[in-house]
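Hi F.,

I've been meaning to write this up properly since the lab meeting, where we talked about keeping a consistent format for the predictions we share between groups. The idea is simple: the sequence comes first, exactly as it goes in, then the structure tokens exactly as they come out, then a line or two of notes. No screenshots and no reformatting. I'm using this chain as the first example so we have something concrete to point to.
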Amino acid sequence: MIPVLIWALVSLSAAQTLDVLYPELEHSRTIYVTENGPRLSVLSEQSKVVSRRGGNATLPCRIQRDQSLSTPSRKMRIKWTKLTSDYLKEVDVFVAMDFHKRSYGSFHGRVHLQGSSPLDASLVITELTLEDYGRYKCEVIDGLEDDTVVVSLDLEGVLFPYYPRLGRYNLNFYDAERACREQDAIVASFDQLYDAWRGGMDWCNAGWLSDGTVQYPINAPREPCGGRSTVPGIRNYGLRDKDKNHFDVFCFTSHYRGRFYYLIHPSKLTYDEAVTACRKDGAQIAKVGQMYAAWKLLGYDRCDAGWLADGSVRYPIATPRRRCSPTEAAVRFNGFPDKKHKLYGAYCFKGHD
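Output, unedited:
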């Protein structure tokens, strides 16, 4: 009762004040206060830009100004940031104000404004890396006016499920990041998993994604994978504890600069012999991500099982045929054989600058 009484007294006092200040004001009249719309806005002709690792990309950002505004001031500030996969933080990429320009972190020396006109705030990124994939925000501030727009940078590439020699469900999130990195890849995003699922991917083991969720794609519902009566889709375990929970991981890789190849050798090799043979050929033993990229992006096809850097044995089939993945194009997996006693071929990789 007391709060209601206080509110009534405050309202009465405010009404009396208005009566004193504006005696001619009719009590039944409503006053609307309007503001002019934004006099500066930021637009992007594309919401998504697609490129490849090692290439360049231009993220469009164009400034539109009301004619009542003067020409862009020398203090107009253009700032580009990268949104983290969980959208909780922003990473500084590039800032420009008049002649002062600065790039940050891994973007240092690789980014600049396109600057085709005083109102062009588009960002050019060169020598793209896997880590450049994601969403970027362009922010323009000119005096009291400001606006932002978000642009996605996508990379041509391939997603693949991964677990190490330890076996399935042995990776916490940070182990998963390291495992993908060691295989020339990054932890995949949900969008990349979704695209792979739409492309027909069906995998019944849950894996980490870059936003900290654990999910897996199912195109052929069955009892061990969510149930036979469920519909196709991406099964989602939600956010998991990055330290304590253990799963597999979905990795993503893109085009590479170099040559992936099967080493022609007079005999089959142990793992250590394969590493040495690649080195003698001026190369390194290939990584899992490099095999997937060669298979998916270049159509590499070889029906010979060979060692890879993580100690697994695999072979890529782009054209299904008898005795070589007869039902589908795929990277075939022979597991993690005994390194000292099992004999296979070797897949090597020679990098190019």
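Notes:
The CA atoms of residues 214 and 313 lie 26 Å apart.
The longest helix spans residues 2-21.

If this format works for you, I'll send the rest the same way.

G.
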